[in-house]
Each structure stands twice: as structure tokens, then as C-alpha cells.
Model the fold of this input.
Amino acid sequence: MKGGGGRAGLAQWVEVSRKALTHNLAEFRRRVGRDRKLLAVVKANAYGHGILEVSRIAIGAGADWLGVNSLEEGIELRRAGVRTPILVLGYVPLGRLGDAVARGLRLTVYNKASVDGLAAACRRLKKKARVHVKVEPGTNRQGVLEGELPAFARSIQRRPGLVLEGLSSHFANIEDTTDHSFPQRQLAAFERSVRGLEKAGIEVPITHMSCTAATILFPETYFDMVRVGIGLYGLWPSKETYLSCALDKREPLTLEPVLTWKARIAQVKRIAKGGAVGYGCTFRATRRTTLAVIPVGYYDGYDRGLSNTAHVLVRGQRAPLRGRVAMNFSTADVTDIPGVGIEDEVVLLGADGRERITAEQLAALAGTISHEIVARINPLVPRIVV
Ligand SMILES: Cc1ncc(COP(=O)(O)O)c(C=O)c1O
Done:
């Protein structure tokens, strides 16, 4: 199909389906109910889907909170006029804590230096800062150790300006396995932490631990809020999660992929039998071959591991990649697809007619997970809501 409309001048773009995203969010809302908060995880440019585009749709579809990784992502949302509560899940350097307070961003805290810095920023700015303490769940990444939690929580309560709003934790391997004994132990540890604070007379209004896989599989992980990322984008966290859901005979959940990555063919050329394709001459044509040169490479986030293995869709048909994925170009074999011309659309990820290239397929070929396939699409590639 020849490109038209707003895409006419683009070499490549990402389409974000409002319908699919709204559907996925509704599926999670149906699972957790209206009484719990649903936080849409929009970190990493909304897993590559476009942080502003996704955040606006998610808020419109009923997301209560947004979760980002960095201060910069939070500031981008505030600058765009987003007033929804935003929780920064990742690390904010001590020197930037004042910026977070000034923008009313909630912060995840787990060490004294951040608490001290936040208290100072609150004094200086005469503003309050709401914080969520992260409990170390045995992943040994971020978090306060269980035994140190009551003292840490009290140290926050003592600081004027700081509001202890949340208590959070995060599963280590809930999506990696159908054996959920480790997540069960993590859940038990988190429940102990919640009870420990209650016993110490420390009230925390919002406890939260559940990611996509937990929200699909284990209602007992919901607490006051769930933090859903990958599922919102219509991708299952893993085959194991899909299988566990099916085996548990849980109410089925349908997820619709949100993202389609398209490009326009830059050149069509015919090469003779024996001709080499791309850097390293890793492909030699075994017949007279028609090639479509696609202006997308690993700089754009199209994994180099897809060289000579992946397919793209042209006119609704699969065309195998030939040769190496280069920094800015890839090449597909369109010999068996008649009538292909310059500027025709190519689907690198997503559906065209009855064919679909999934993030899971590309991830398997590239030796990674679907999260990385979508999250690494270069933020400079335009995102277009359809
Ligand atoms: C702290 C935290 N919560 C929630 C999520 C969302 O996880 P998922 O994409 O599996 O829903 C992430 C993602 O890595 C995270 O880091």
C-alpha cells in the first residue's frame, strides 16, 4: 500500500493502537476491580510505545497512576500537562531530588541519603514530598531490608515535609517459571513487612507489589494498587505466564498488541544468482533475487541478531531478511511478492492482512525478550496514535 496522510513524509514510524491499549487496560481493570488503583507503567518511553501518547490514552481509559523510571520521564509528563499521580520507580540522583519535589512526583525510597536529601528539598521549597518505601524482596536490587523497615519508616515520619504514602516491592522471577514457590515466599515476606509496620503503629495508605504476571495469576498480590506494564501493551510477560494462566483455568484474558512498526521501501533492486547482500557478504543469492532495501537498522532498535533470520511483511506477505541488519538499513527478499515498488509500506513488527510479526517471534530470533524488542525502538522514530 502506498503511504498517505501524516505518514507520507516518514521513512519509518510506529503506530500505537488506541483501541488495543484501551482494551488491555479494561482487561486488567476487570481483574482488579474499581476499588484498587491501577498504575500504568510507562517507563522506558512506555516500553517503546511513546510515553506521552500512551499516558494520555491510559489516563483516558481509567489508569489512576503512572509509573516512570526516571526524573526526566516524570518531568516530560508534567511539562505535557499530565496531572495524574506519577511514581518514579527508579533512581533519582541526590542532586535532583528538589526537581522531583517541585514537580510533585512521588519517589521510591530505600536509603537514608535520599530521605535526608528529600527532607532538605522540602524545607527549601516549602513543599511536601510523598514517598513510597521499597522493601527488598530478595531480588537484591533496590529495597530496604525487612528487619530495617520499621526504623526506616519512622525516620521518614519524623521528617517534616515527608509523607509516607506507599510501601512497595517487586517480584524477581514471577514471569520466568511455572513454579511459583519463590514469588510465594516473596509475597509472604512482603505481607510480614506490612504487618510489621501495622504492629509498630505505622500507617501506610498504599501498598503495592503486583506486576503484569502477578495481576494475571495471583489476586492475593493486589493489595491497594497494581503496577501493570508489559500486559498493557498487549504482550504476555512470557510463555510461562500464559501457560500458568491456562493451567490454572483462570478466567481468560485477551491481550491485543498495541504497536505496529512500519517503514517505507527505499529501493527495489534485482541481483543475479550468486550476488552478495550487505556487510560481511553473509548472504549469497541462490537465484535471481529481488531485494527491498528498508531504511531501518540497529540504530533504530531493530536488533542486529535478526540478520538473515527475521521476516518483514510486504503487501501482507512474509519477506525474509537477507544479509546483516546494518546501522540504518536492512534488506528483505521480495522475489516472490509481485509488484513491490519504492515507498511501499513494510511492516517490521505487527500485522498486515492475515500475517503478523510478533514481538515474541523477534525476541526468540534475537535471543531476548519481547520487552527489549519494543523498548529499544529509537525514541526518535515518530509514534502515531491510530
Ligand atoms: C518496579 C516495577 N513495577 C512494575 C513493573 C511492571 O512490570 P511488568 O511489565 O511485568 O508489568 C516494572 C517493570 O519492570 C517495575 O520495574
About this structure: The chain has twelve helices and 20 strands. The longest strand covers residues 345-352.
